[in-house]
Every structure is written in C-alpha cells, then in structure tokens.
Structure prediction request, 534 residues.
Amino acid sequence: MKLILVLLLCGQLLFGAVVINEVCYDPQGEDQGSEWIELYNNGDQEIDLNGCRIYSGGSSYTLDYEFPHFILRPGRFILIGGVNVSNTHLSCNFSFQNGGSASDAIRFVNADSTYTDTVIYDEPNSNLLCDDSSVPASSFAPDVAQAYALARIYDGYDTDDCATDFYAAAEPSPGSPNQLFADYAISSASFIEIDQQELLNFWICNRSPCSPSSFASLKVWQDALLIHEAEISPISPADSLAVEVLLHSPAQCLEISISLAGDPNPENDYFVLNSAPVELALPLLNEIFAAPLPGHQEWLELYQEAVPRDNLQYVIRDASGNRCSFELPAFPGYFVLCNNASAFSEDYPEVPHNRIIQSSGWISLNNDGDAIYLFDDSELDLIHQMSYSGDQITGGKSLERYLDGEQNEFWRVSIHPDGASPAANNQSSLLPDQNKRLEVLGSPFDPRESESLVISYKLPDEPSRVNCFVYDLSGRLIRKLADNQSVASRGMISWDGRRSNGSFAPRGLYILLWESQSSNGGRVYRRQLTAVIR
Prediction:
C-alpha cells in the first residue's frame, strides 16, 4: 500500500510539471482552424502525454482533445492547433470560448485525472467554473483582444492564480519561449519626517529574473497634482531602488506610478497612500463616449471627489434597464469604466492602469440617444443621471459634463483636441482665442481621414439655447448638430462630415445655419456659415 501511494504521489508530481503556457482563443479572422494551445514541461523528467486531455469551459467543461503517445521533454514546448496554424506538433480544430460576458476556461487533465492545470479568463464567473483547487474560481486572467494570446509571465511559471500567472501578449509566440519582461512593483510606501520636513519614502522592486532593456517612468501625484517625475534606469533581477520625494505641504492622498514597457503585472505598478481621512462624497458621471470610431470601444468616466467611508460598489443602468456593476478604488480622482481594460489601455496609453475599471457586463451606449443612471449597489438610491439625444452624438468624440458660472450642470461634445479626455479634467481643454461670436475652424476638411469641422462660439449669455443645422446647396437638411441644446457662453460644436443616417456627406460646399438665444429669452442671433468637404 505504501509503495502504491508513493507511485501515485510521484505521478502527480510528474504530471504537475505540464502547464498551459500560452493559448490563442480569439485569433485574427475566423476562429475555426486558427486557435491553438501551447503546453510546457517545467519539471525535470520526460512525460508521456498519452491519454491526457484538453477541455474548454463555457457553461461547463467539455472535452476538446485527447493526446496520443507523445513524449514531452523537460523545458520543451508542444503546440497543438488547427489547420491554419503553422509548425504544430499535433492537430486539433479547437472551439475555445472567446470571453466577453462571463468567465471561460481551458483545462489540461492528465491521463488518470489526478492533476489539472486550468486557465480561467474574463469575469464574472456566473457558471461557477472551478479552478485547480476544485472550487469556483475567484481570480481570473484577462480577456484578451482579437489576435492576442494569453501567456504566462515566464515559461512554466505557475502559482495557480490566473490573475498573477497570465498576461495579454500582443505578440504571441506559439511553440517558442514567451517574451521575457521585467516585473516592477511599488512597495513599502510611507511618510517619514527628517529635519522638520515630510518625505514620501518607497521602494521600486524588480520582482523578476531578468533586467529590463529600457528605462522606466516614475510619477508621483499629491492630491491629483503631479509633483515628481523621473526616469528610472534598469534595476537588476530581485533588486530594489529606494526613492524619497520631498512634500512641500501636507497631503491627503499620494499616488505613485511606475511604468515599464512590457511589464506583465501592472497591478503592482501603482500605490496609493491616504494620509488623512476624507469626507463622504459620491461619484458623478463625468464623460460619456458612446460613438467610438470603428475597432474601438465605448466607455464612461466617473469623478470621485473623495473616498466614501462605507461602500465603493455601484451599478450603472441605461434607459432599457440594462445594467453593469463595478467597484471604485478607495482614493479620489477620475476613473474610466469600460468593457475591456486591456483594449482601453492600447487606445489611451497615457491613462494609469489604476484609473481603468473593467465592469461586470456592459450596458451598450445607444448612438440615437439614451439615459444613464448611477446607483449604489442596492439599486435603490439614485446618485447621478444624464441623458442625451442622437443629435448630440458625434463619431469619435465624447460628451463631457461641465458647470457654468453658477455651477449648473450641462453636457457638451468634448472640446478636447483628441475628441475626449479620459481620466482628466474636462475643464482643462483649452478653447481657441477669438473675438467673433462665431468662427468655423477646420474647413476644408476630409471626414474620410477622420478630420472634423469645429464651430467655436462666444455668446453674450450663459446659458443659451442653440440650433445648428447643416444643409446642402439644394436646401436639404443633412445633419442637426444642435437642436435646442443648452450651452455655456463659451464652447465648440463639431461636425464629423456625416449625414443623419451615418454615411459620409459627399465632397462640396455646405451651409451651416446657426441660431442662438439666451435661455431667459431675448433677441435671436442668426448666422449663415459655410464649410467645404474636400
């Protein structure tokens, strides 16, 4: 009996050396025949894969493939993929789940089912898929974008924590070693006092077996104001660098960010230190991006002036009752809520990772108008709301919240040069200097090259009501840019060169009819302007 038990334990140890090292479940183009999985032997003995199996998990685990006789040597890879995958050792047309609304999984099981290695990606785990501890998973690898792969941060590295072990690989390496990136982390941040001066003291740690080939960027914010910025030269493997930053005034909140190209574990790249309690404040909807350009995603921005003392869980609902839930970090500032945090980081690399919140589900912002409601997690207390019409939506530009001189709230098309300002103050967008009441900027323009026209206005009253319509030379209405819209005295309205049905207007001359009037009544100001699409 003891001999049999020892053999079983040895068998578990040997098969435990086989791990899912990299997997592509959403390849470019059609999935069929192009999906693949790479296994790696991180042990020190040869393993016969005969009878081992690969399962995929959606609502439950289903068998995808059973191995024939194949010896996997220590430190070697095996690549299994469809007919369109090059250099495979074994062939299988997999049908892995692509994530997107709930957790999905891929699992390796040894021949006698005594060992598993599982990667579970995306969330929530609404189908209660079990991880390698045989309980429903609570830690997940990211849901990667199309043509990306899920890869271990180092070949064979396995802590049984999917969020720690895997990262989204933009450059997959099927059948070859994964790209090796250094993992930097912020650690042991604290306040110290020397010679009656207050210092922020912390360490930058290299928690990986390699040294990076590039410098890292360090930034420190005090109460949302950037107070320190530096380039950090490469740190040796398993070594650390001590940093001290002088504070010129007492701070309520300090944020530290270290940014290193290719860092596979961005979760430890940020550290927040609250030095004093802050008062109760509820978050507000601050920016809505409902009409992204093709290939990009919608998002919402929220502003949290201070940290709530009791609950950080919230729910967003739209006019149709669709909902998504999320949790805000326990520090103040701007946060972006989206469906895919990795894809958002690609679109806006300047936004710190700890300001990007991947929601549980997504509500889908309608381009023809919608209403957005922010609730606490009980969904009984409405915290904030906004609504918009289809006429307010411009492709590639957000709607941003702003306050007039009397702190009344309005929404306008973003006046930022990039069309949106995620995780930044809307009011920081600079308007061009002008003396005229109206100016047309950007004509002639080519909307097929993502160019747009801007009407910059400087009105005598605030708020005012504005109509702005586009007509062709035959007198046909092409587009409503503003329809009785309430605006501040200073701002911009843009036209992306599209007609009301979303198609591009043809090249030529167009008439812009402007009407504005104080919200309290009075004389109507009318002006006819021209614009050229080239």
About this structure: The domain at 184-274 is CATH 2.60.40.10 (Immunoglobulin-like).
